[in-house]
Amino acid sequence: MTLRDLRIPDQRHPEKAHRPDQAQPKKPDWIRVKAPTSAGYKQTRDLLRENRLSTVCEEAGCPNVGECWSQGHATMMIMGEICTRGCTFCNVATGKPQALDTFEPGRVAHAVQKLGLNHVVITSVDRDDLDDGGAEHFAQTIRAIRHRSPTSTIEVLVPDFLKSKPGTLEIVVEARPDVFNHNLETVPGLYPEVRPGARYFHSLRLLQRVKELDPSMFTKSGIMVGLGEDRQGVLQVMDDMRAADIDFITIGQYLQPSPKHHRVDRFVTPEEFAGYEKAAYGKGFLMVSATPLTRSSYHAGDDFAQLRDARLVKLGRA
User: Fold this and answer.
1) C-alpha span between 306 and 155 (Å, rounded)
2) Per-residue CA distances from 142 to 11, 89, 171, 212 (Å)
3) What SS3 class is residue 114?
4) Helix (H, G, I), strand (E, B) or coil at 22
5) Cα 90 vs. chain centroid, distance in angstroms?
6) Which string of b and e fits 239-269 if b means at least 16 CB within 10 Å?
């Protein structure tokens, strides 16, 4: 069997190889970032390589990787680097994943301890090939981090478990992450085009169910803009999230990873992002991050501290 070379676009994204090329527009000044070169960046990179860990920072081509890694912050991506879904916006490789690595939770916990992380974000590829979608692997990783770094707070960014057996969500919630994140990604009308393997109201219900299982757990979700949505659609998603009692919303600019990915409809201005932030706070979110470079895990530790403080203020305990 020939191994795939994930550096080759057609092998990384075989499901996108037949798609016509979409022009990649020039980025405006407000989204340009410098190439990562700092010593802190290199130390983080080397530690991750040493422990054979994947990160969504690299696999998804996050523009903030230089800033985050220079501070020793990285979002660990568990269960391999090959996803069973083929979302048109995503740069994570698609195909048939390998078997789970039973030693991975321990390696992640070791890296968290070594980096001295006060707050860690754990995400994963979609694993529709597994009965529980990888929920038990998430739980084992959470427990391993708790054991090695008991004072660290843990945020999980999970898949939708759409094809998993009943009781899957409960496995992750019972492991008691501090923040439960699952991204809606876009407005419901764009799902068939942008997120064809997912269902908007299933994802929304997943987040609502977390609060029913554990009302004290913080819930978080995010969307990208610039995919073809309009302002009213974004405001409706905010209302849907608040109806599901979601605490924290992130809104960031979609950036096209390659000509084979979904096109950028437009670059949303910083002023429009400020308007979204104001609207979201007005709808009752405890925490909002809405900027062109906002990503789910960007400044996650600082945001978590603000999220906790906001809840205390709301409860009158500040």
Assistant:
1) 14
2) 32, 28, 11, 21
3) helix
4) coil
5) 11
6) ebbeebebbbbbbbbbbbbeebbbbbeebbe
The residues with which 127 forms a beta bridge, in sequence order, are none
CA distance 179 to 142: 12
Share above pLDDT 90 across residues of the chain, in percent, rounded to a whole number: 59
pTM for this prediction? 0.88
Contact 307, 247 (CB under 8 A): yes
**36 secondary structure, DSSP code:** P
The DSSP code sequence of 161-223 is -TTSPTTHHHHHHHT--SEEE---BS-GGGHHHH-TT--HHHHHHHHHHHHHH-TTSEEEEEE
Tens digits of residue pLDDT in 161-220:
999 999 999 999 999 999 999 999 999 999 999 999 999 999 999 999 999 999 999 999
Distance, in Å, from the CA atom of 254 to the CA atom of 260, rounded to the nearest integer, reads: 14
Taking a C-beta distance cutoff of 8 angstroms, is the pair 113, 80 a contact?
Answer: no
Residue 270's CB is within 10 A of a number of other CB atoms, namely 14
Structure tokens at 293: 């470079």
What pLDDT digit, counting tens, does each position of 98-148 carry? 999 999 999 999 988 988 888 889 999 999 999 999 999 999 999 999 999
120, 55 contact by CB (below 8 A):
no
What's the rounded mean pLDDT across residues 36-52?
67
